């Protein structure tokens, strides 16, 4: 029988690397809390219609990358429901906003999420079929200020702060405005007109997009089509005065906060719900998949999926890509990798060696007590020869070995030996605190030591 492997495009994350993932997530939680964001957790699968109507039928995500299946019908008379593993989290958050009537609070809802997303893309470095996003959305009724350019700038400033606190250097912010719901159709019509005499020269995908969703032509990566794409009309020339003023106000607030950006008039992004501000942060260390994160404003999304008017702005970062970037930054990545190695690979603070099966309960009891003092403890197999206990303790990189045998149990003593030293120290049960201090002493070098 062939051995089973993780499915193509998915992967296991193992210690000590998972320490790095936790560090990234903890930093996000800490930074987002300062901006008064709270966590939301939505289901990993949703009704397929949510993505078809929210993200857009014509997008690559919906037309070819979703994991979709028919659920079993509950009764024969019932139609089976079509379900989809979420390819992104914005549609789910907006669905939850509508379902729980969060708009009725009259307040802006500031929500963040951390979790896996699923897209059937061609796997490569930085691109997976199950990947992790850390994202946030600020959404609410217009009366709560949800349309204000201040929100866009605040979210972007939060992202710059987060990346800087994480220690990611050299990121670039590209920003654009794709206009309002009324600007877009005028621009799309102009694009269609400009593409009509040229589309036959383009790749098959772009010929189709020119018909169905000409905006998608703009973010095409096809090398041969770039010359034509460069010459197409620019969205900036089709923005109405309100959209122009909105964009100018976002940029002015970014200037005031010292957040550096570049305006990229071709940045339309691959999801249909965007209006006005769109942005991406890229990083040179990532190679072809250089987008660390993407986001923008979606003033019409709630209404598109049957909700009240609820403009919003948000982003999602590729957590896999944040990790790759950190690892590519030699000095910083090494420092964190070393810390992670210290906490995991360097092993437990103590290895408890139960000398017989009879004393196993005493060994567990002592482990419980030491873990209560925040020590990382490994309990060995009861009754092994002492030499074998030492072998295990060394393999685990334990800092010390604690013996629990009949001598200790009946003599009411703790017996400990720092590994690599000749000393063998014994305390009475009444001297537990001295025993703890000695254990701490042997663990001084451990980063996560108590
Ligand atoms: P997106 O641009 O599709 O936007 O994805 C955001 C980020 O997720 C990307 O910049 C990238 O870092 C990461 N990502 C996407 N696909 C993959 C993949 N296959 N493997 C690894 N990482 C990936 C959204 O998802 C929007 N929901 C963002 C948003 C939130 N807009 C408004 N609010």
Automatic annotation (TrEMBL):
Assembly: Homodimer.
User: Catalytic activity annotated for this protein?
Assistant: tRNA(His) + L-histidine + ATP = L-histidyl-tRNA(His) + AMP + diphosphate + H(+)
**Chain residues that bind L-histidine:** 88-90, 119, 133, 137, 269, 273-274
Q: Which gene encodes it?
A: hisS
Q: Which keywords appear in this protein's UniProt record, sorted alphabetically?
A: Aminoacyl-tRNA synthetase, ATP-binding, Cytoplasm, Ligase, Nucleotide-binding, Protein biosynthesis
Q: Which GO terms describe its biological process?
A: histidyl-tRNA aminoacylation
Record-stated family: Belongs to the class-II aminoacyl-tRNA synthetase family.
The family database entries (PROSITE patterns) matched by this protein are listed as: AA_TRNA_LIGASE_II
Classification via HAMAP family: His_tRNA_synth
Q: What SUPFAM superfamilies does this protein map onto?
A: Class II aaRS ABD-related (SSF52954), Class II aaRS and biotin synthetases (SSF55681)
Domain Aminoacyl-transfer RNA synthetases class-II family profile: residue ranges: 1-348
The primary site where this protein sits is: cytoplasm
An example Gene Ontology CC term for this record? cytoplasm
Q: Does the keyword Nucleotide-binding apply?
A: yes
Record-listed E.C. numbers? 6.1.1.21
| Name of the protein described by the UniProt record | Histidine--tRNA ligase
- Asked if the record carries the keyword Cytoplasm, the reply is yes
Q: Where in the cell is it found?
A: Cytoplasm
